[in-house]
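Spend some time on this chain, tokens included, and walk me through the fold:

. . .
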Amino acid sequence: MLYHTLLLLIYRPYFNYPRGRQVCIEATSVIYEYLLLYRKTFQFQIMTYLVSYYIYTTAIINVIEIKSMDDGDLTTAATRLSLSLEALEKEVRQTPGVHRSVDIIKDQLRSSQLNGRDVSRPQFDKSNSSPNAC
């Protein structure tokens, strides 16, 4: 997860360029797969601040991706974002400092006018797990 988070941090300023977008989306996809496994194994009960930071960084990229997409492409990014929010909201119970991260993500979603789209709390379909996750 650290490697992919570093890729996100390096390429995030270049998200508007094709290569930057590609690297960021691939890294968030890999971290999403790890999160599915993490949820399956630990139910998001055992997390450190570092893991929370990985999740937060991924969620911010997902928000940026959602803001820049057409309606048809929102499902994948919204699903990844929803899982990230689920993990962070469960982490708030253990480490209250993570609450600020959740607020930032939700504020980013609320503050943007997404052509009338409601993405204030994307829904995660728990039956939709990736075949590579198991």
Notes: Residues 120-134 have pLDDT under 50 and may be disordered. The chain has one domain: 2-114.
